[in-house]
Amino acid sequence: MSHVRIQVDFTPVADDDEFVLGQLTDELADDLREVGEVERVEQPVTDPDAKGVGELALGVVTVLAGAEPGYVQALVDVVLAFLQRHTGRRAHLRVGDIELIIDRPTRSQTDELIRTVQAAIEGSRR
Hints:
Oligomer: single chain
CATH class: Alpha Beta
CATH architecture: 2-Layer Sandwich
Mean pLDDT: 84
CATH topology: Alpha-Beta Plaits
Distance between the termini: 15 Å
Structural class: alpha+beta
Strand order of the largest sheet: 2-3-1-4-5
Radius of gyration: 15 Å
Shape: globular
Helix content: 25-40%
């Protein structure tokens, strides 16, 4: 079975602090473990005096998902469920050079989103 790494992040809302963003990132990561192997993303070190220790980016994870339609459907379903629990946020999925924004899609838009993610995965494997 072929796999691809997909970056998933969500937009913060005005009253989010680091603690809330950390909790939400952990929740998203836990949810995505249903689909595949999840990793938190580290921010690059920008301080020249730092010893090379990066910080975890808030609101950003990657998931190693299968390229089969069932995995793509599960990935989209998990992200949509996360957005339904946390209204006012958008999610971004990045597969290779393709970035998709999810914001309360209709059923037909969800079907199109699944097809688009599947095509992006197929394109990234070439």
